[in-house]
Amino acid sequence: ILHLLISLPREKVVVFELEPIGIADHVARTATKILRSELGEIGKYEVIESDLQVKSVEEADSIGRELGGDLAVIGSISRLRRKILAEVKLIRVGRARVIFEDDLTGETEDDLDIVMRRLADALSKREKAERLVTTETVTGVEAKERRRRTSYYTIGIKLGSGFPLFGTYNGEGSLMRGLMVGWYETPHLIGEISAGILFPMGNLMEGFEEESGVLELPIDLSILYLPGLGDITTYLGGGLGIHFISTPEEAATGLGLNTGGGIIFFRTYDFHFFVDLRYNAVFARIGDKFPQQSIDFTFGFTRKAIPGKAKRGCCGEGFSLF
């Protein structure tokens, strides 16, 4: 069976010269030579060479039939400022129809061998070249994009209100919440660390007298999942941490759990604004209530490094306030 599969006739593909656009002819000829070589090495096609530059599908179909081809490849290679863009189309000879097309950008002419190898693989599998990247076939453009966009740090604050449930938090009706937050961001996940203070709204007027209300100091680690990549995207997540709670009569320390979601605005900018709604439970006893529970609504912002003040971390940009 293996012998029969190996001996099956391969489709014949006519590879025409790539059209140079704003680039030297010898660069286009070299790119075409690499493309033919890579297609031949894949072994799926029998490559037929043509020295003609063909721009239209109809012309490629006509010449392809004359040369006995089953398929034909036409395309171009052009310069976009400092970058190189290669485009190819795979045509079904006899039907004059494009059955696959793709393009790929390289940083310089030095990327031509990688670009052509990826496009040859794409033509063979009829799958977009951007999905066929490996550690050995990353172009200079893609490498820069990965360093810039894969992950980075932001830092900021969030403020809002907490609404205790079931008479917890020493019977308080509403609480003020203020937190410093740090985000480690990737395209679809955010690692969040937060620390701050939670106190009754009445304490703002009473000057934080010792005998009034309740005081909480939370430190949490959370994971947020973002399904989208746009400027406005929702998220869901949760986390845990250590919470320190005190009242005039007693103090307690307990594990804190949170879960909820929110919306981030201006995701693709250095400055993010967000609104957040979470359920919080602190496994600490205050009076006869256990655990302490609340629904918290907050809003806030985070920001990347201020221009000229950037700090570098181990995995990306840091942040500087001054």
Q: Describe the strand arrangement of the main beta sheet, using strand numbers.
A: 7-8-9-10-11-12-13-14
Name the beta content range.
over 45%
Largest sheet: 8 strands, antiparallel, barrel
Supply the number of structural domains: 2
Give a written overview of the molecule:
- The chain has 322 residues and is an alpha+beta fold.
- It folds into 2 domains: 8-142, TolB, N-terminal domain (Rossmann fold); 150-303, Porin, CATH 2.40.160.
- It is 19% helix and 47% strand.
- The chain has 6 helices and 14 strands.
- The protein has helices spanning 2-7, 25-42, 57-66, 112-125, 140-149, 203-206, and strands at 11-17, 19-21, 45-53, 71-80, 83-92, 97-106, 152-164, 175-185, 189-200, 215-225, 233-246, 251-265, 271-283, 292-303.
- An 8-stranded antiparallel barrel has the order 7-8-9-10-11-12-13-14. Strands 1, 2, 3, 4, 5 and 6 form a 6-stranded mixed sheet that branches.
- Strand 13 and strand 14 (292-303) form a beta hairpin.
- Helix 2 packs across helix 4 (112-125).
- The longest helix is centred in the N-terminal third of the chain and has 18 residues, at 25-42.
- It starts with a helix and ends in a 19-residue tail after the last strand.
- 33% of the residues are buried.
- Residues 1-6 and 307-322 have low confidence and may be disordered.
